From TrEMBL:
Keywords: NADP. This is NADP-dependent oxidoreductase domain-containing protein. Belongs to the aldo/keto reductase family. Gene3D superfamilies: NADP-dependent oxidoreductase domain. It comes from Riccia fluitans. InterPro entries: AKR, Aldo/ket_reductase_CS, NAD(P)_OxRdtase_dom_sf, NADP_OxRdtase_dom.
Amino acid sequence: MAQSQQLKKDESVEEAYFTLRSGHRIPALGLGTWKAETNVVRDAVYNAIVECGYRHIDCAHIYGNEKEVGEGLQMAFDAGIKREDIFVTSKLWIKSCVPEKVRPALDTTLSDLGLKYVDLYLIHWPICLSEDASSPPKKGQVLPFDTVGVWREMEKLVEQKLVRDIGVSNFTVKKLEHLLANSTIKPSVNQVEMHPSWRNDNVLNYCKKENIHVTAYSPLGSSSTDLFHAEEVIQTSEKVGKTPGEIMIRWLIQRGVSTIPKSSNKERIKENMRVFDFKIPDEDMQKLSSVPTQKRTNPGGELIVTSEEEKESILREFWEGEL
C-alpha cells in the first residue's frame, strides 16, 4: 500500500511558491472568488489570509465583488499583513478587450480593490464582445479580438508599475504561439481549467516548454465530473490518508501548477491549505492522471456561441482542437 511522503519544513515552505519568468513568486495555492457572494467574500478573504495563511487572492471585474474583496484585503492589512506579502490576481473582461479600454478597466479594478497595483493581470478570455452584448451573444456582438493591440496595452501597465506580471487565461497553444511571436513582455501565466477529468496536457506541456506558469481553475472539477467519487481519487485518498479535495489540489501542485479553489466556507478554506506536508507517490500520481473521462466543463459557450445550430462548430473553432 502506497503511503504519502512527508515533507521537511523547509521543503514545505519552498513548495508553497512557484517562480515566474519575471522572477516574482506566485503562491501555489490561492483563494478563488468566482461566484462568491458579496456579503460573505469580504470575510472569506480576511479569514483566508489572516487565519489560514493564504497569500494569493484571485479575483476579476466580472465576478462583481472586487469592492468586497478589497475590503477583506484592507482588513488583513489593518491586522498587520504586509501588502507586499499578498499576491493579487485580477482579469480584463471581454467587453474591455480593445486597446483603448485596457487601462480604464485596470483603473476600475484598482479603485475597487483599494490597491496601487496588482501582482498579476490576465486577459480573461481571448474574446471581445460589444458593450451591449447579451449572454449568450447575438451575431454582430462578437467582435474581432486584437490580441497584439490589447497585449501592447497590457505591457504598458507593467512599464507604468501598475501591474507586476501580465498573463492570459483560456488560451490554446496556437493562441499562445501567436502571442509569443508578437510580444515584448512574454506572458507569465496562463490560467486554465484543469483537474483529473481535464488534464489539459497539451497546454501544460507547451507552457512548461515556453516558461509560462500554469494556474488551474476548477481544480476539483464540477458536479458533472463528480471527481469526489472517482475511483482513482478515492483509492489515492484512502492510501495517502488525505481527503479527496486535498488529493486533487496536491496532484496539481506536483504537476507544477498553482491553483485557486473557490470557497467561502472557513473549514473548507482551511482544508484546502493542508496540502504542503505530504507528497503523492509517483504510482498514485499516474493513477490520478489516468481518469478515463476527459471533458472540459467550462467551454465558454455562453460567451461566444451565437447560434445553437452552430454551437459545436463555433466551440471547435475557438478551442482549436483542445475541446
